[in-house]
Specification:
With about 400 residues, this protein is of the alpha+beta class. It contains nine helices and 19 strands. The strands form three sheets. Strands 1, 2, 9, 10, 11, 12, 18 and 19 form an eight-stranded mixed beta sheet that branches. Helix 2 crosses helix 9. The longest helix has 18 residues.
Length: about 400
């Protein structure tokens, strides 16, 4: 039994558990694996973080507060969680009537939120970043407060601090069902029952099968792939000190990529295409060298210098995306005692620390300091939707 149970201890769940425990709540965290792990979304060594979030101005307060929390966590743990190396947004998108390119969308949020930034001329970008092959017509935005997060370390640190503050953990335990009752919520697992006053469902790709068609129809798990390419011996200097970067070169879902500085002689690159829907329990987690070769030929060749396509490694990752690529943070339609905190839609880790804090405030104070209204279910309408993710 617990006053509050958090189901799923990845990005959102570990943050919520830590924040709730830090405030003295009687809280229990449940995960079907042993986090941090590589079965969901919160892994892969690095995640981009940036204040100029082109996905929308409602996110800006969350990522700003998250940066503060990551630094506080570093001070408490002595661990390196946040590499504040700066962030580049690059746009080579062809002009499209009535559509703002990626840099313009990033600029709009940066200006409204007061984020420090600069626009860099292409020749200056090539001088500063010799590994970057921007064309004269490209637009380049730089933000000094951006950088990368280390997801496995962030999850592990918050779980350790949560346990030290009194949170209980039930790991390697799969939840089979959430059953509302008049005065509590019953959680049925493969190892027995848990009774909770309130529940946070932050189960990512597995949330759909627990929440019924009104919510599961909005959650689509997708297979993504992360690539690491070795550096050539003659690679341009500066790869190790590079900012993180997102490069958009078209308007399609596959026409862009993101990447990181070089660590241990290799560079991580990926693109969140969100097109390959999968069953999180049954999809093939293996990957082929040909996938890295195809991605390099389609997206990287001619844009980045000094990488070896013949020396690469890969990992698969799960995204869980909503129809508008936004988050869902709202009460479960079947029970007001259950708060849905999913999906991340491929850009959630940078916001997760603040979302965990906001969830704790909502549950313990009745409201969060940062407005979460933009992430409600009402924006999708109230009609039940077909269950496509269960």
């Amino acid at each position: 039994m617990a006053d509050i149970v958090v189901l799923g201890l990845g990005a959102m769940g570990s943050a919520a558990l830590f924040q709730l425990a830090s405030r003295g709540a009687d809280v229990l965290g449940v995960d079907q694996f042993h986090p941090p792990h590589e079965n969901g979304s919160s892994h892969g060594e690095t995640r981009v973080t940036r204040l100029g979030v082109a996905e929308g101005t409602a996110l800006a307060p969350l990522v700003k507060r998250s940066h503060e929390i990551w630094k506080e966590l570093e001070g408490r743990t002595g661990e390196s969680l946040f590499g504040q190396v700066g962030f580049l947004a690059i746009s080579s998108e062809p002009l499209q009537h009535g559509a703002a390119d990626y840099v313009e969308r990033t600029l709009a949020v940066a200006r409204r939120s007061g984020t420090r930034h600069e626009l860099i001329a292409p020749d200056e970008a090539r001088r500063r970043y010799p590994w970057l092959n921007v064309a004269d017509g490209d637009r380049v935005y730089f933000e000094p407060e951006g950088g990368y997060l280390r997801p496995e370390r962030c999850v592990a640190a918050q779980l350790r601090l949560a346990a030290a503050a009194g949170a209980r953990l039930v790991l390697d335990t799969r939840v089979e069902a959430i059953v509302p009752h008049a005065g509590h919520v019953e959680i049925r697992t493969g190892k027995g029952r848990i009774l909770a006053g309130r529940v946070v469902v932050s189960a990512g790709a597995w949330a759909g099968r627990l929440l019924g068609p009104q919510v599961s129809g909005l959650l689509r798990p997708t297979r993504e792939i992360l690539h690491w390419y070795a550096l050539e011996p003659s690679a341009p200097a500066g790869w190790g000190e590079a900012p993180v970067y997102i490069w958009s070169y078209g308007h399609g879902v596959e026409e862009g990529f993101y990447g990181f500085p070089a660590f241990d002689g290799s560079v991580k690159l990926a693109h969140g295409e969100k097109t390959r829907s999968v069953d999180p329990d049954g999809f093939d987690r293996s990957s082929e060298e040909e996938e890295s070769r195809d991605f390099y030929a389609r997206s990287i060749a001619g844009r980045l210098k000094g990488l070896r396509v013949d020396q690469s490694r890969r990992k698969t990752c799960l995204y869980t995306v909503s129809p508008d690529n936004g988050f869902i943070i709202d009460q479960w339609p079947q029970c007001e005692r259950v708060l849905v905190v999913s999906p991340c839609s491929g850009h959630g880790f940078k916001h997760s620390a603040a979302i965990g804090e906001a969830v704790s405030q909502r549950l313990l104070d009745g409201a969060s300091r940062i407005d979460l209204a933009a992430f409600g279910l009402a924006r999708f309408g109230h009609a039940p939707l077909p269950d496509v993710a269960a």
